[in-house]
Amino acid sequence: MSEEKKDKKVNLHEGHRARMRERFRKSGFSDFNEHQIIELLLFYTCPRIDTNELAHVLINKFGSIAGIMDASFEELMSVKGISENTATLFKIIPSFLPIYFNSRSDGTVYDNTDKLKTLFRPQFVGLTHEQFRLACLDSNLRAVSNVLISEGSPNSSPFEMRRIVEETFKAKSVNVVIAHNHPKGLPAPSEEDIASTRYISASLRSLGVTLLDHIIVGERSAASMREMSYINVFE
Question: Helix or strand or coil: residue 18?
């Protein structure tokens, strides 16, 4: 390819990228489809290739943006054209979301189960294994902290009662909520979930702390064990 043709191709790419960035600045992702969103992200790790084609390859292989973000580092690296920097970027994004949400102090009062589900759902985005989390609330039911207690396998997440107590006392909280996720399943509690919830509730109650709810976050929805009558805060 002649230098003139190379320069023309580079200019076309740069013009396309500039237009895509301008679209995003004006209206966010509102008029983007999935492959265009991935294409825009690829601009920042693939400066010299046509990212449109690579974005289509990724969507076709993993099925969706969620599929791309949920793929392992090794799966991403197996795609021709995906560099270590690109694979790292795709793993950074879902890991960054919980940090972003936790850093927002908007004064929300978590006085119902729908709000509690909203509090926890972002914490489990992109995870392929279970995690167990604890949120400590102040006397006005505003979040003081939201911390990871333990991590487990794709099907279980053991908790540490000592860590729960330590984090509760550190936050000087008398109202707490626990949560865990079912990465590839429904948010239905297992017998183990029910037994551990009742144990945690009784243990905290003996210390003057109320367990307000246990939220289970599934692949597409979340459930409240309080709504299912497995927790009674008035006991």
Answer: helix
